[in-house]
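ingest -> validate -> predict -> emit
validate: passed (alphabet ok, no gaps, 63 aa)
predict: started
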Amino acid sequence: MIIVPLKEGENIERALKKFKRKYEKTGVIKELRSRQAFTKPSVNRREQMKKAIYVQKLQREEE
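emit:
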């Protein structure tokens, strides 16, 4: 359960923003979307490899 402590006089929009951020970090939406359709392990591995290659390319360009 997500708890967002409010300070005295804190804006409700700010509290809602904190709640949304915490909820997003839990990964609930991501998990639901991934469970909607089955993906083969080989496809998952391929996607991870593509992501790793992309990140390495970005790091090399940064240096």
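The mean pLDDT is 93.
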